[in-house]
Amino acid sequence: MMNNVDDNDVANRNGEIHDVMFDFCGVLVELNYRPCLLGHFPQKFVDTLCADEDDTYGFFAAEARMDAGDDFADVIKDYRKQYGDDLAKAFTYYIEHYDDALPKMIDGMEALLTDLREAGYGVWGLTNWSHETFHLAFEKFPQLERLLQDTVVSGVEKMHKPNADIFNLALSRFGLDAAQTVFFDDTQANVDGAKAVGIQGIHFNDASDARKELRRLGVKI
């Protein structure tokens, strides 16, 4: 059960953190192509995709377009022209079975969010995610929908990290003071984007490290 904390208790702590925002994939939930595609497509293809920093198959670029607000129907049409039918089939399967690529929450993160909420801090989500697949995160992990007070989704807003507009939208929509807000992301460019608008951006490594960073900033958990 969450403690009954006065809404102004944390807000009135001059100079202290009031709110914490979290990215989703790589921070709150694990995104992994392997459990989604392995057994349905050649292992060599899956191994290469999972270890591929150069985006040989164009999966990352296609998904980034969806995260920025493009519809799958438009993305797959262009993808098929560039990469052919076989890879288009693989990307389509991935999108249609996206929940299989979300095997679990990141270890320790449910407990961290719970502790923050019970201590009276604001807890929010800010993610680059397609408007067509984001619902799967809350369906698969309903505890996230319960613990997060609200979430800004890039594909819905048609703006995306690390650009300033989506951070400013989140601050405005959630009613946050940038100087009293911490944002965790596993991508350094997004951390830098948060810092550019005055948010205290921190690169996410794991839940234990995040907890230590919050305590260093004076968060009482």
How would you summarize the topology of this molecule?
Elements: H1 7-11, E1 19-22, H2 33-37, H3 43-51, H4 59-67, H5 72-83, H6 85-96, H7 109-118, E2 122-127, H8 135-140, H9 142-147, E3 151-153, H10 154-157, H11 164-174, E4 181-185, H12 188-196, E5 200-203, H13 207-216
Parallel strand pairs: 1-2, 1-4, 2-3, 4-5
Describe it.
With 221 residues, the chain is an alpha/beta fold. The protein has a 5-stranded parallel β-sheet with strand order 3-2-1-4-5, with helices on both faces. The longest helix has 12 residues.
Low-confidence stretches: 1-14
CATH architecture identity of the largest domain: 3-Layer(aba) Sandwich
- Please count the helical segments: 13
CATH superfamily of the largest domain: HAD superfamily/HAD-like
SSE run = HEHHHHHHEHHEHHEHEH
Oligomer: single chain
Secondary-structure class: alpha/beta
At CATH level 3, the topology of the largest domain is Rossmann fold
Number of domains: 2
Number of strands: 5
Nearest-integer average pLDDT: 93
In which order are the strands of the major sheet placed? 3-2-1-4-5
Residues in helices, as a percent range: 40-55%
Largest sheet, described in full?
5 strands, parallel
Dominant shape? globular
